[in-house]
């Protein structure tokens, strides 16, 4: 059994990367570094340049990479399929679904899926996410150029769910991620996602957040005790508005609450104020 390893969680968006380096020590997690850098594009060369720069400037030690991809860079949906379909048949079905939505060839994207709910009617509800094969190939080349062993790739929202279930000991909760023009929400129970929904907004996301959470709770048949807010468009004003106008279940996600901090991190007085921005990178680094 490996008792010690250091994992670099990397969140990749269209114009930036964020990294969180976490030491795994016999079941305990130590946050040793966080950092970010803007990028011109998420192409292989720009990613490699940014990662090499961060590794050098921040003295990052990890040789293992775990990556969270911004969902705005993916095709994703929740759909129903026949329960008796094999894994390869479901993947073929998802490829066809993605090709229908994008107009691209079925081979352009590489999909993955998760069974969210099975019913007695012979159907299963699955959540799928598909990333462009060209991007994934470039990501692997970028990691190889930086001598990083790429072990894990997922969407950022899933990595945030992992951060909540792994660090905050929450057994039933909702995660709401707010980005430019988009809100994603999910409900998890015992570390498993049981329902997910996303929608677009044009002005104030508060009403949409409440509606999505209510829809998810109705679908799940339960009222979750805690709703964690995170994402580029979440701030204290939005959290306070939801707490005062709806209820106090809404809270700003602080993913470092139960992390051990290195001396360098512990001396960073502003760390907690911005830690929610690193939720996806931290979740990825827990893998």
Q: What percentage of residues falls in helices of 4 or more residues?
A: 25-40%
What do we call the CATH homologous superfamily of the largest domain?
Answer: ATPase, nucleotide binding domain
- Beta content: 35-45%
Number of continuous helical runs: 9
**Top CATH class of the largest domain:** Alpha Beta
Side-by-side strand order of the widest sheet:
8-4-1-2-3-14
Overall structural domain count:
3
Q: What is the typical, i.e. mean, pLDDT?
A: 93
Q: Give me the count of strands.
A: 14
- Taking Cα atoms only, what radius of gyration do you get, to the nearest Å? 19 Å
CATH architecture of the largest domain: 2-Layer Sandwich
Q: Which term fits the overall shape?
A: globular
Largest sheet: 6 strands, mixed
Q: By helix and strand content, what is the structural category?
A: alpha/beta
| Distance from first to last alpha carbon | 15 Å
Uncertain stretches of 5 or more adjacent residues? none
């Amino acid at each position: 059994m490996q008792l010690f390893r250091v994992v670099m969680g990397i969140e990749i968006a269209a114009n930036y990367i964020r990294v969180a380096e976490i030491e795994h020590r016999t079941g305990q997690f130590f946050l040793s570094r966080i950092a970010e850098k803007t990028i011109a594009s998420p192409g292989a060369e720009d990613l490699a340049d940014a990662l090499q720069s961060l590794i050098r400037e921040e003295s990052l030690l990890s040789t293992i990479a775990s990556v969270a991809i911004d969902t705005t860079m993916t095709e994703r949906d929740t759909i129903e399929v026949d329960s008796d379909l094999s894994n390869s048949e479901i993947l073929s079905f998802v490829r066809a679904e993605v090709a229908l939505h994008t107009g691209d060839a079925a081979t352009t994207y590489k999909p993955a899926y998760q069974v969210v709910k099975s019913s007695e009617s012979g159907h299963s509800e699955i959540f799928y996410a598909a990333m462009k094969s060209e991007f994934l190939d470039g990501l692997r080349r970028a990691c190889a150029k930086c001598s990083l062993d790429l072990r894990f790739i997922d969407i950022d929202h899933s990595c945030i769910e992992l951060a909540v279930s792994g660090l905050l000991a929450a057994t039933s909760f909702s995660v709401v991620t707010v980005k430019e023009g988009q809100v994603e929400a999910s409900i998890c129970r015992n570390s498993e996602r049981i329902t997910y929904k996303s929608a677009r907004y044009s002005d104030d996301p508060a009403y949409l957040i409440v509606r999505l959470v209510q829809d998810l709770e109705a679908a799940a048949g339960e009222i979750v005790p805690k709703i964690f807010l995170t994402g580029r468009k979440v701030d204290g004003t939005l959290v306070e508005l939801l707490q005062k106008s709806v209820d106090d279940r809404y809270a700003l996600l602080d993913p470092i609450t139960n992390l051990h901090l290195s001396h360098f991190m512990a001396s960073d007085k502003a760390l907690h104020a911005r830690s929610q921005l690193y939720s996806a990178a931290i979740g990825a680094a827990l893998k």
